[in-house]
Amino acid sequence: MTIFQQFKEAFILSPATLVHLKKSSASWMFIYFISGLVIFSLFTWQMIEHQEAIKNVLLDYFFPQSWHSVSEKLADFFFESQTKTVLSNLIISGSLVVASIFLFPIKEIYSAKFEQDAQFNNGEKNEFPLIYQAVEEARLLLIYIAAQSVILWIGYYPFTWTKITAITLSYLFLFFTFGLDIISPTLQRHRINYTIILKYLLKKPLLVLGFGLLFSLPAILIGKLIFSYQELTLIEIASILFLVNILFLTLAIPVGTRIASVLLPQARQTQPPSKNSIRWSYITLFIVLVISLTLHGQLIASMHHKSQLLKAEYSIDWSSIDYKLPSFSQLFNGKALSNLSFNVEIKNPTEFDIIMENSKIYVEKENLIIATVDLHGFEIPAGETRQVTMKLDSTSEINKLSHFDDLLKDWRVDMHLQVWPGIPFILNIVE
């Protein structure tokens, strides 16, 4: 199948089959849509109804009750560090997983009815045993978790190239998994397992990605729109996208059945991967899964250790203050270096260690960095009291201030805490 034929099949020929739905397959389309709507509505209703309880459970674990109003910003770190595109694609992909888990039997009947009504010459059904199908779906779920974990990890890093990489991978993964999820049931009905399906579909990437793009695009565009509404919580956004996506999943199933029927003759001739290739694929999947879950666990643990700062008790020794200030000429003619140090007694009343690596405070005005303050790290074991010498080394460039008539406007102060090498936890102090 040429590139042109793949595009033609994905965007013209297969979607055109929707106009040829007959009564029986149309009935199952309605049943699938209503069932999905009911299940997704119940799921999203429970999430929205209990979102405060979910949030409070997380906040209670990380922060004391008195700090909940402040710490809500800190709890949003994992979401704010990601681009809205990555989050939107993650939610849409998640709706595919939920639909696969709860609607698989109805999707199978719906697809089979359409295959029968359209009179595709695919031969008799020869399905795998249910246990085998369950194992296949579990393996696919592990691939999904591993891939999404890698994409999220890349997206945590605050660099332009990592954000672009995470966005690109999230789109490719969404489109391909959408195509795989909708195309594979017809192939599986005719005794083709996931290893052969994956091998064959990877040889037709434009067809699979084009199909996934066509039916994911409406939800993607709606996601971009609703993410612009600041008053909506992430759970509410996810709920809207789940409900929107069920419509396009319903429309995609007959189209995916047509694509699978076109591919079936060649898929039957595809040789399964060698046992050695399958073995190495599973080893790679296991390594990626373990590493990504370990890294995410370490990231959460690092955040938790730092959050104990909000529960600690502090006593400053004012007599210990020592400082070195720049001269007046240095202050206005270039980089001005200053140092401040003082002793503070910190009591850690929690059962967790307080661990603070070296961190920075950036003072910005109109997106220009005016000053940088380096904070030296320290560690307070659980239940202990330690005297820590706080050292603050700052670099100021006052000469960057060019408009003194609006000197008090457009200032921003951010603290960058290192939760993991290369991943800052950005806490806005002044905006």
Q: Could you please describe the fold and organization of this structure?
A:
With about 425 residues, the protein is of the alpha+beta class. The chain has two domains: about 5-270, no CATH class; about 310-430, Immunoglobulin-like. The protein is built from 13 helices and nine strands. It has helices at about 5-15, 25-50, 50-60, 70-75, 75-80, 85-115, 130-155, 160-190, 195-200, 205-225, 235-270, 275-305, 330-335, and strands at about 315-325, 335-345, 355, 360-365, 370-375, 380, 385-395, 410-420, 425-430. The strands form two sheets. A seven-stranded antiparallel sheet has the order 1-2-7-5-4-8-9. Strands 3-6 form a two-stranded antiparallel sheet. A hairpin with a 2-residue loop joins strand 8 and strand 9 (about 425-430). Helix 2 (about 25-50) packs antiparallel against helix 11, helix 6 packs across helix 11 and helix 8 (about 160-190) crosses helix 11 (about 235-270). It is elongated and about 90 Å long. The mean pLDDT is about 80.
